[in-house]
Amino acid sequence: MSASKSKVQLPATGRRKRGVAVHMGSDCGFGLPSVLMLVVVLSTLSFSLLLIQYFHYTAVLRDASRLKADMAAQNGIVFVAAGKSIGPDSVYFNDDTNARVYAYPWGLYRLVLSSGVSGRTISMHSALIGQRMNALFKNALVYFNPQHQLVFAGEAQVVGDVQVGRNGATLGVLEDMKSLPGFPVTGTIESDGSFDGFDFNEFGIQVEAFDSLLETAGAGGLVLTGPSPARSSGGDYDFEKIAQGRATEVVLHGSQVISGRVVRVGEPLRLIILGSVTFSAGATVFGPIQILSTGAITVPPDVRLEYTILYSQDSIEVLSSAECKAQLISPRMTIHSRAKLDYPSSLVAWASTDSIGPSDEPAIAEAPRSVVLKDNVVVQGAVIMNKRAVPLDELELVVLTPSSKVVGLVYSGEEITFDGTVIGTVITNDFYFYESPTRYFGWIRAGKIVRTDLPESFLIPVGLVADSPQLDILDWI
Which has the minimum average pLDDT: 76-85, 255-264, 377-386? Predict the structure, then answer.
């Protein structure tokens, strides 16, 4: 019997000699991306912090450069005011900054424009320059007429010192006025015949240039470069765009009404207008702008004028309640009631100082000049009428009505009818008033001059002090 073969099956042990199967949790595959994402976030955050620090650093450098340029521009003006010896128009400082400085005669004062440079940063500043007072302006009243005696009468009052000519001073009596018990002067009265008026040479050159421009433009001989003056959709001149443009001289034909915000920054603008000029309600004229006119100029209320020069060959009127800060130049000016001209403003009634023709006749037939300050007018700055080279037959008067007030300087090379108040100094060739049937020359019957209340920081027009003049910053624009 043969043995039978049988298969023996071994029980499964669950082991394999080769390969191992590892079963992991379902979230184990996200670990590496999370780490990468964290690295990216941290890197971005670090880069952002570095970028913030960089921008902060550059902003600090930019602010420092802007500050240095700003200081350089201001220091350039200070150097000019101090009379420092500099190059033609450049000032270099020890901190690697410099300033380009330009000075212009600006009416009674000087206009200085300064561009400060620090690296690639430029800053601009501008200012008006005036002149410090000398000993003459320590007086309340200077009367320099060589022929008349100064006569105090009525309600005249002077707080401060008085300087008179060689004829001295005395007291007078007027009808219907109380006689004075003594000189109405709190200071001293001294006789000194050495002063005979101011030399306005620099100012006179400017006025001659104004007249020449108006004459040449009127004859069609003034050729200007640059685009034609901008006009609005209505066809009128667009004064805002004209001021913003690069043109420095613009001729406008016909009478003009200036409107809008006419703001000039940098080089001065000169508007040469062949006609009369007025301003619309709410108009603003700001900055170094000269408005030259062959006709009358009228300044209504609700108009802002700052640092502007108005020149009229005819007349200027500032209407009631108007307020501005400007230099007004014209043969005839009337400042109506309650108008105010803020410091440093000025009124100048100018006549040529050239003697042409026979000495006993005026060179040109002209109407007499006049400056009239009506009730409750306030002028802070200067009121000036220069001495005419060849006198007219008619009187040329500066008139201060009883409630008018000037803070600063009143100067006349002709006559003053003085009934108002001056906080500062009055310098005049003569006083005048008329009381029927008599004309009084050399008499001061009313009015009040108070020198002691004028701040010592007050600056006078440039050129009034000829010997060793000291300049200073009058106003930043």
Answer: 76-85
DSSP 262-304: EE--SS-EEEEEES-EEE-TT-EEESSEEEEESS-EEE-SS-E
With CA atoms as reference, report the closest residue to 291 among 240, 319, 340, 328. 328
Q: Which two tokens stand for residue 454?
A: 């004028």
Do residues 180 and 91 share a domain?
Answer: no
Phi, psi of 253 (to 5 degrees): -95, 135
Under 8 Å between Cβ of 116 and 125 = yes
Interval 345-374 mean pLDDT: 73
Express each pLDDT in 161-194 by its tens digit.
Answer: 999 998 999 999 998 888 888 999 999 999 987 8
Question: Is 474 found in the same domain as 420?
Answer: no
- 118 and 75 fall within a common domain: yes
Question: Residue 471: inside a domain, yes or no?
Answer: yes
Q: Please tell me the pTM assigned to this model.
A: 0.83
Q: Is 188 exposed, middle or buried (0-12, 13-18, 19+ CB in 10 A)?
A: exposed
Domain identity same for 387 and 450: yes
Q: In this structure, are 165 and 180 located in the same domain?
A: yes
What is the Cα 94 distance to its own chain's centre?
Answer: 30
Measured CA to CA, the distance from residue 39 to residue 41 in angstroms comes to 6
Same domain as 465, residue 446: no
Which range of residues forms the domain containing residue 161?
134-200+350-457
Residue of 266, 286, 249 whose CA lies nearest to 114: 266
Tokens of 4: 């039978």
Residue 57: count of CB within 10 angstroms of its CB: 10
What is the count of structural domains for the chain? 2
Cβ-in-10-Å burial (0-12, 13-18, 19+) of 224 comes to middle
Tell me how long the chain is.
477
What is the longest distance spanned by two Cα atoms in the chain?
185
SS3 51: helix
